[in-house]
Amino acid sequence: MKRGLYVGRFQPFHNGHKSVIDGLAKEVDELIIGIGSADSSHDVKHPFTAGERVLMITSAIENLEIPFYVIPLEDVKRNALWVAHVKSMVPPFDTVYTSNPLVIRLFKESGINVESPPMYLRQSLSGTEIRRKMIAGEPWKGFVPKEVVSVIEEIDGVSRIRQVSKSD
Fold it and tell me: Which secondary-structure segment (H or E) carries 35?
C-alpha cells in the first residue's frame, strides 16, 4: 500500500489543489493532506484558520475515491526540526508531494522521497492571486470549488481578508 503526504497552506483551497489531489488519488492508496502554517490566521497571507481550511478541503473532496486524512501542521520556528514534527503528527507515508522549494529541501535532507506534482493553471490558480482578487473586489469564485465558496461565505471570509489587508 502506498500512502502519500500532500503539503500546502491552502489559503484558500482552490481548483489547482483539487486537480493535484485528483491526480494523486490515481497514484496512492491513501492520501494525507497536511495543512501547513496551521497556527497562522487572520492576516493577508493566512486569512483562514486551520479549522476553516479543514472544512474547505473535506467538503471539496468528500467524494475522493481513496481514504484521506486532513491534518493541520503548525509551523516550527526551526526548519531543521520541521520534518520530525510533521512525522510525529501524521500517519506514516511513503512519498511527499509538494512544489514548495523549502519543503522539498527539508524532506530530501531527511532522506524522504519527494515528488512535485504538475501544477494546474498556476498563473491564475494561486492562493496569492485569489486573495488579491478578494481584496480588490474582482471575481474569484470560479477559481475555487463551490464547496469552498460556501465555506468562505459562511465565515464572511472576503470581509475578513479585506479588513486585515488595511493599514492603520
Answer: strand 30-35
DSSP-derived 3-state class of residue 22: helix
User: Using CB atoms within 10 A of its CB, is residue 96 exposed (0-12), middle (13-18) or buried (19+)?
Assistant: buried
Q: What does the alpha-carbon distance between residue 83 and residue 154 come to, in Å, rounded to a whole number?
A: 34
Cell of 2: 502506498
Q: What SS3 state is found at 43?
A: coil
Global pTM? Answer: 0.93
Q: Which of 100, 98, 99, 76 is nearest to 88 (CA)?
A: 76
Cα–Cα distance, 22 to 16 (Å, whole number): 10
pLDDT higher than 70, residue 28: yes
First to last CA, the chain: 53
